[in-house]
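Title: [Solved] DUF6759 domain-containing protein 3D structure

Original question kept below for reference.
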Amino acid sequence: MKKALLLFSSLFLINISAQKKGKDYSEILKSKNIYEINAFLRDAHPDDPRRSVLKPRLMEMMREYLKNAHPQDQKVKQMQEWLAVLKRKPSTKIDFDELNANIKQKQIARYKTELETGKSSVTFTPSISQNAIVVNSSTYSTTAIPDSEAEEFNMLMSVSSVEHKNKTVKILNSLFDNDPNSKECIVLIENNSDCNIIMRMEGIGNTKYRLAIPSRGDNSVVVQKGDYLFTSIVCGAQYASQKTIQKPIHVALGNPEKK
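Solution (posted by the thread starter after getting help):
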């Protein structure tokens, strides 16, 4: 009886967990979708027996995709990176420390180069509206991009060489700073959408930051630690998310999906 109750409890908890994630993997063994199988391997329990079938299948599907991919296919790089990770790990999931280390090294290399070469501005192009969606706990809702945002984006990007150098030095100092008692930390915004955006971060009182991020690019800012409301217009859709910043964070945004 105890074993039956234990089994029932385990199945109940697994079911609740799956419901929270909003994903149904009951038919995953029939899947021929690279992204669906990849998501399953990231989410599934390490001892799930389906892993032994699906990981080799996923790797073979990725090899086949790369074999037939067009030279200009933007998914090729991501697929190669995933395949490399799968050769040494059970899934493409990267823990926070590994992700943070990778981001940190890339940002250090980037800003060191910018100190020497400077940074050119990017022209902002307003985009059409998109339908409202909810991704994770972040909300996107339909709204038009105000014309004033294009001018503001160009203004934020077109800083003087002195301002850019000062900002770059501050970011590099933050990247190298491992002091847990520091009152500031770095925020990296990665814009994977087709539109240039402005990320607005509003904290307590008059603590506010604005960051312009070019399409398919990223940008960083050093902020005071605390609670912030992040808002932006992403390809015509309103993005909003509350974040508590006590250590360096990485925020990635993509194109809003149509309903």
